[in-house]
Amino acid sequence: MVILNVFKPRIDPCIFLHRDAEDWTRLLGEDFIDELIRRFSHVVRDVDELVEYVFEYPEAFHIGLRGLRVGGPYKEQWLLYIESGYVDPGWRARWPYVPSDGELDVRVQVSPCYLLTVLNGKERAYIWRNRAPTIFKWISAVPRRRPLDVFREAFPAWIRELAWSRGYSWVAWSRWRDRRNKHLAEWLYWLDSGRMAHIDMAVGRFRDVYEMAARTIKSGAEVLYELS
Could you tell me the superkingdom of the organism this chain comes from (predicted)? Predict the structure, then answer.
């Protein structure tokens, strides 16, 4: 009788768009990492190469996860991703509040995490078009290869410079019409660091997050991570 391992990751599947191999090991566990390397041994030899492979082909990565048994607090999110190639488009990072009366004519209400979603139907593609139409002023289609590089080139310099000067929290609490720009702040953080803001928050990398968020006062750290 073969007993299959049940892995219990300490983070959601967005970890696959988080370019830090040490965080992968810390949050997924060595057994999970070993299993991933085994499954992708035809293209990678270690966790560093695994991370880079995912960054090159994020949408295709989930094919190699079929059959994985996952438990723990993020079980439902993992099963949805493994079984159907879907990741929720909602924002994850709970940005520290800063007063912001800014309004940005940029509609991006899809998390970078949604890049992991397999666009195998019109409904999934429609989410991109409906919730992030501004993106398609900069690119013709969602990139299937090296999206981080593509979006770093595509996002206008003024938006990224605004985040550098005002801070990511300022962007997050600014508005597009009646909505906050929390998704957009996640994008800008990801474009600059290659890491997901909510994962940096989850592992206690507050110095990076806060200094990149206009040196926001460090309070309420225990509630900075919000499940999608």
Answer: Archaea
Residue 193 CB coordination number (10 Å): 17
Q: Which two tokens stand for residue 177?
A: 């019409």
pLDDT digits (tens, 9 = 90+) for 162-219: 988 888 989 999 999 999 999 999 999 999 999 999 999 999 886 656 555 443 333 3
Q: Phi and psi for 31 in degrees, rounded to 5?
A: -65, -40
From 209, 195, 146, select the one nearest 18 (Cα to Cα).
195
pTM of the model: 0.89
Q: How many CB atoms lie within 10 A of CB 177?
A: 7
Domain ranges of the chain: 13-84, 112-224
pLDDT at 225 over 60: no
Strands 69-70 and 179-180: unpaired
- CB-based contacts of 156: which residues, under 8 Å, 6+ apart? 138
